[in-house]
Amino acid sequence: MRNLWIILCFLGVHVRAQVNCITTPDQLGPYFVHGAPSIKNDTLQPGIANVARSLELTFYVTYNCDTVDLDTLPSPYTLELWHADASGEYSNVDGNPNDFAYRGNLQLSGKSTVLHTELPGIYPSRPSHIHLKGYLTNAWFTDTITTQLYFKGDSLIQFDVAKDYPERWIELDTTANGFIGSFAFGLSYIVGLDERSANNWYVSPNPAQDFIEINGGTQSTDLLVHSAAGELYLSMSIDGPQRINTANWPRGMYYVRVGGEVQKIILL
């Protein structure tokens, strides 16, 4: 497995990020709120009230351990972020103001995107952390990352579930104006990239009419078929070649996911 820190250094970026290639998930948590606004000027509102707690984070997205140029993807990549304020309180919950403080959607672009916010406070007796959901904005068929990021050196990590996820600890450098760090989100797969796993499942024929055949794999895995609108047409486990009757399916485009691979097929 390649070291992501080395990869980003080749890009001319000084960063200490995760070295595993797929970001581990975490619970959504009780404080997610729908409808948070888009983040403007790369700053999570209400902005930096205490310069000593200023936090600058640079985010990357990786696939197969390689940094992805997000401008080449079929859809923008969005992060939904939310965290507690300096006193450890969340907006929009438990009677707190409905002002979406420290909540927002950040659209990533290029090789990296910078976010400015304040270092989250402790809630209650938990290490400082940021909640995130990441996904391709206009593509239902990519994995959604739901996770929590922590900060290396936080004294409460050893007493928390965070101790089991060091790959999600962000190492912070101190500056004259607070803290600076980086994190890379490792995706398990992205539709449209020509990557094949060792399983080498494939779907034929394409275009198809009355049937499709699943061939090539040697290990048990899950098979999912969705329409272009996201409707699930088939869900099953397979451990060898399969012939699927599609004679009665509506004609159009479908996405067939076998294990970690996704192929687009057309029914005529």
CATH arch. level architecture of the largest domain:
Sandwich
Q: How many distinct helices?
A: 1
| Uncertain runs | 1-14, 193-198
CATH class of the largest domain: Mainly Beta
* Number of domain modules: 2
Looking at the structure, what is the overall shape?
elongated
CATH topology name of the largest domain: Protocatechuate 3,4-Dioxygenase, subunit A
From the alpha carbons, calculate the radius of gyration and give it in angstroms: 21 Å
Averaging pLDDT over every residue, what do you get? 84
Classified in CATH, the superfamily of the largest domain is: Aromatic compound dioxygenase
Terminal Cα separation, in Å? 42 Å
| Largest sheet report | 5 strands, mixed
Q: Give the total of beta strands.
A: 17
Helix content: under 10%
Beta-strand level of the residues, as a percent range?
Answer: 35-45%
Category from helices, strands and their pairing: mainly beta
SSE order, one letter for each helix or strand: HEEEEEEEEEEEEEEEEE
Q: Could you characterize the architecture of this molecule?
A:
- The chain is mainly β and about 270 residues long.
- It folds into two domains: about 5-185, Protocatechuate 3,4-Dioxygenase, subunit A (Sandwich), CATH 2.60.130.10; about 200-265, Immunoglobulin-like (Sandwich).
- It is built from one helix and 17 strands.
- It has one helix at about 5-10, and strands spanning about 55-65, 65, 75-80, 105-110, 115-120, 130-135, 145-150, 170, 175, 180-185, 200-205, 210-215, 220-225, 230-240, 240-245, 250-260, 260-265.
- The strands form four sheets. Strands 1, 2, 5, 9 and 10 form a five-stranded mixed β-sheet that branches. A five-stranded mixed β-sheet has the order 4-3-6-7-8, with no helix packed on it. It has a four-stranded antiparallel β-sheet with strand order 14-13-16-17, with no helix packed on it.
- The longest helix is centred in the first third of the chain and has 7 residues, at about 5-10.
